[in-house]
């Protein structure tokens, strides 16, 4: 396991299924955690032990991001930023509301950009900064009823590459992870029953991803050993997109 002792990891969407597993994985690696969610992640921070912090933040609010992230950085630094928060708004393209489209892009694409910019001074100071963006297989292949979601995640992959190019000079790596459906309680609401069974049949390995698999990949990308990896989009979809 990577040793992240003495490093601070900021995780957005920390109260969700993937975020919680990320928090546990990075805490086990010795990192100090800053857990961010629109709901409180204080209970999770307390469960993981002393030294971890939790903040409530609405990622749809640019002013709140610009105000709160420096407070987090001043309090304990930011060595690793994991833009994990996201929402899946699905509808046929012709039925997609403008409100839903804008909300998906605000949270899935604009917020990671704003979080990265706000964290940049602290990532520079780290000397080995890492940004890990959680995208989706929908960023690279067409999935019906995913116009807003896919567009936002494709934008996130493109943003990942641009930031990797621009910020490599500061010793910062920027990578994305694009999973298939991850078996969290929230995701399984939409992928249960016959729909989920049919989706699994389309995946060569025959199953969805587990949160711990995504967290383990993020841990590698955050590690010292991954210092040469930047601008990449790690697709974790059981072979779905190779067909």
Summarize this entry quickly.
By secondary structure, this protein is an alpha/beta fold. The protein has a single domain (8-182, 211-232), classed as Rossmann fold, CATH 3.40.50.720. The protein contains eight helices and seven strands.
Describe this structure in words.
The chain is of the alpha/beta class and 243 residues long. The chain has helices spanning 17-28, 42-47, 62-76, 98-126, 147-167, 185-190, 193-201, 211-222, and strands spanning 8-12, 32-37, 53-56, 80-83, 130-134, 173-179, 233-236. Helix 2 (42-47) links the parallel strand 2 (32-37) and strand 3 (53-56). Helix 3 runs parallel beside helix 4 (98-126). The chain starts with 7 loop residues before the first strand and ends in a 7-residue tail after the last strand.
């Amino acid at each position: 396991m990577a040793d992240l002792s003495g490093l601070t990891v900021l995780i957005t969407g920390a109260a969700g299924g993937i975020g919680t597993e990320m928090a546990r994985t990075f805490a086990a690696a010795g990192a100090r955690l800053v857990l961010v969610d629109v709901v409180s992640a204080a209970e999770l921070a307390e469960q993981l032990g002393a030294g971890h912090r939790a903040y409530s933040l609405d990622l749809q609010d640019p002013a709140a991001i610009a105000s709160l992230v420096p407070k987090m950085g001043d309090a304990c630094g930011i060595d690793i930023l994991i833009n994990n928060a996201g929402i899946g708004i699905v509808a046929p393209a012709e039925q997609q509301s403008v409100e839903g489209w804008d909300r998906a892009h605000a949270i899935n694409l604009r917020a990671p950009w704003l979080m990265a910019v706000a964290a940049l001074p602290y990532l520079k100071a780290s000397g080995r900064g890492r940004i890990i963006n959680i995208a989706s297989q929908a960023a690279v292949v067409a999935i019906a009823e995913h116009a807003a979601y896919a567009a936002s995640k494709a934008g996130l992959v493109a943003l990942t590459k641009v930031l990797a190019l621009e910020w490599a000079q500061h010793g910062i790596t920027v990578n994305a992870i694009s999973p298939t459906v991850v078996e969290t309680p929230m995701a399984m609401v939409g992928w249960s029953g016959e729909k989920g069974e049919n989706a699994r049949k389309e995946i060569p390995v025959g199953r969805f991803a587990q949160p711990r698999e995504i967290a383990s990949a993020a841990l590698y990308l955050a590690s010292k050993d991954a210092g040469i990896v930047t601008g990449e989009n790690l697709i974790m979809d059981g072979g779905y997109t190779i067909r």
